[in-house]
Amino acid sequence: MSKKKVLLAAALGIAVGYIAREQVNNQTKVTPEKALNHAKEMFKRQGPISGSWIYMKPEELERNGLLYDVYRGGVTRNIDGSNKQYDFYVDTATGAVIDTEAAV
User: Where is the PepSY domain (predicted)?
Assistant: First the structure.
């Protein structure tokens, strides 16, 4: 094989690998909408919710020495006549709720 063919084959292989990796990464990420719906379902197990929100841009979260790419959001629940707000963090890769906390 000539050097040109080897270089062309290598360049083509790298390009195909890059495109394939990008496609896999884009398909495995959870959308913010799905993350919000999953979190709402988790909160609904404890009672009705009256409002919800989510940031569309992922951010990094460190918990227990591990770094996660997460969506941050929140829900509002009416408990005993007063609104209580809770924040949550959802893993962008799996859709799992990483952490929840009462909003201050």
Answer: 29-101
Q: Is residue 54 a contact partner of residue 36, using CB atoms and an 8 Å limit?
A: yes
Q: What global pTM score does this model have?
A: 0.69
Distance CA(80)–CA(91), nearest Å, equals 31
| CA proximity to 93, closest of 53, 60, 52 | 60
Kindly tell me the burial class for residue 4, based on how many C-beta atoms sit within 10 Å of its own C-beta (0-12, 13-18, 19 or more). exposed
| Helix, strand or coil, per DSSP, at residue 99 | strand
pLDDT by residue (tens digit) across 35-82?
999 999 999 998 899 999 999 999 999 998 999 999 999 999 988 888
| Spatial distance between the Cα atoms of 6 and 101, rounded to a whole number of angstroms | 56
